[in-house]
Amino acid sequence: MGNINRRNFLQVSGSLVATSVVSGVTMWPNISLAADTVKLGLLHSLTGTIAIAEAALVEAEKMAIDEINAAGGVMGRLIEPIIEDGASDWPTFAEKTKKLLQRDKVAAIIGCYTSASRKAVLPVLHQSHGLLYYPTYYEGQEQDKSVIYTSQEATQSVISAIEWMAKQQGKTFFLVGSDYIYPRTCNKIAKPTIARVGGSVVGEEYAPLGHTEFSSIISKIRAAKPDWIYSTVVGGSNVAFYKQLKAAGLDGSKQKLLSTVVSENEIDGIGKENAVGYYACMGYFQSLKNPQNERFVKAIKAKYGQNRVVGDPMECAYNAVYLWKLAAEKAKSFDVDKVIAASAGLEFDAPEGKIRIHANNQHIAKKVRIGRARSDGQFDIVYESDVVEPNPFPKI
Amino acid sequence: MSFDIIVMQVFNGLSLFTILLLMALGLAIVFGLMGVINMAHGELMALGAYATYLTAQFFAHYLPSLMDWYLLAAILIAFCVTFAFGYALERGFIRWFYNRPLDTLLATWGLSLILQQSYRSIFGSQEVSVPLTTWLSGAWEPSAGIYLPLNRIFIIGLTILVTFGVYLILYKTRMGLRSRAVTQNRAMSSAVGINTNRIDALTFALGSGLAGIAGSVFTMIGSTNPGTGQLYIVDSFIVVVFGGVTSLLGTAASGFLIAQSQTMLEYLMSGSMAKVSILLLVIVVLYLRPNGLFSSKVRS
What we know:
The complex is a heterodimer of chains A (396) and B (300).
Chain A lengths: L5 H21 L10 E8 L6 H20 L7 E8 L4 H14 L4 E4 L3 H14 L3 E3 L12 E3 L8 H10 L4 E7 L2 H16 L3 E8 L7 H10 L3 E5 L4 H11 L8 E4 L4 H7 L1 H4 L3 E4 L8 H14 L7 H20 L4 H8 L3 E4 L2 E5 L6 E10 L5 E10 L8
Parallel strand pairs in A: 1-2, 1-3, 3-4, 4-5, 6-7, 6-8, 8-9, 9-10
Antiparallel strand pairs in A: 10-13, 11-12, 12-13, 13-14
Helix pairs in contact in A: 2-12, 3-4, 5-6, 8-9, 12-13
Chain B lengths: L2 H32 L6 H22 L7 H23 L8 H23 L15 E5 L2 E4 H23 L1 H11 L1 H7 L3 H23 L9 H16 L4 H21 L2 H18 L12
Antiparallel strand pairs in B: 1-2
Helix pairs in contact in B: 1-5, 1-8, 1-9, 1-10, 2-3, 2-4, 2-8, 2-9, 3-8, 5-6, 6-7, 6-8, 9-10, 10-11
């Protein structure tokens, strides 16, 4: 305790007070700007390896919010979006969900892309009684009472896609995916489905998320010579995978490949010339021809630039905001339980066509489509099904 | 495993080796010769990659007829940009931290975060990619089953050139002689009349320039985003430390060992398990030989 004099004491205590004031101010709870707004949390990865797929979802959600606010808001209250970055890190997603529910007191959260992030968020939703709208295709096997799933589950993506591939001279399949729950579960579902349609699996490989060296996997693909590659490689790794496939001579004209996770947004990052000729199975494609989609795409381009592309998750995120609005209006309340109860059977005229929330499993009944990538980054639609009822726990 | 597969896997291992070597050479010079732990080395690679991206954009807009040759210009530009940046970095930032390795670690880590955020602010957090040059697409097929992608052959050739160039600079020029002198005995070199400040700056700049070339080369294989540097920095450090920090030959040897083992293991087990096995191997060897595979005596 040597040199305590007044100057030292004032310096140290002054800096302590300053830091605590600064940190206190930054942690001050978000006070609503106006009394008549309702808060909606938007939680996505704006940075990291998943940003290539997920960052665009915030833009679609913001556009939906702006449209709703321009028309008077929800039950007379304007929506105030609170945007948080999950940074492609699952614990961060859980942390931000806690912050949105407990500190900001949002009425609902629209968020997550990877199944890992959704799983990380579930316990927080249960604890704080929150509601999540999950706008991304996923592997099914889940029906959580705090989540409304606005995009395809396995029967509407994996199973439909494999049945279609089998009809296109598909006898041998090579499964490639990123190493986490979604691709592994999809392949678990894919294998018995492939057996059921009379095909066989000639390879199953996984690479860590963010991995960029696919040379060994591509060597195995060349050795196995599959009719179809079924790819669940997610996020930034797709750029490396597609580029290396092309450099190895396995581009879209020589090797049939179908992915359930590559939309127009990913192709934008991969480079159109690297993805030409490959297939994707989605519920929505930007090239769909119907009046709601034309209006939707025009609005996106007007707001975010003529070079903006729109993929399935963006459209499902846009739908999620509207589905929440319609449910809240039907329930005449923002209370989570009432909104969920009001969601059953709710219909909406989405850019992909009419969609309907299933009466009791919180998933969406929608059409399944398969498209082939063109040289301009858009998809030619080669198959469109009838409305497929969602079944998150299929018997396979 | 047929003969074709073995040949292709050996080639893949060679390709991975050259990539690791490009990444690790720059770090070996900075870490090995100067003792500076530069956690921002990955971001310097990203700088080279972004410089390549900008060059590609420039050629696409103003010189579309020369588009096929943008890669050669890009590699040169990436080297110059990162060389200059490294020189400025050393003079303005790193040199305050000599003899304080832990502080260098922390300071350069902070620098890497700053650089990542600058890339995010300037280029956006989305991936950017460059078009593949036409004369590097496709592959060489010496026989029916063997398919050797041209861009990887190009990378192997480039690495041989670069390594040879670094060898020439370090062992056949006066600057290289002075650099090695400073590494071995700084006080004596200074007494003999070598301008240690200038040599430090040039050596660091050379290491950074090599990182820039590495980054430029990666644009051919994968995409670039602000976090790309983080993917490679750990591998680079492992290669350098495993080979022996002060030995460039050690870096080459360890890179070769790690690359070939990883490729072989990736064929036999999944990518994640192969990585785990390699890391276990490195841990075991470092336990038995703490100074790495090759170590030379250096007076600190």
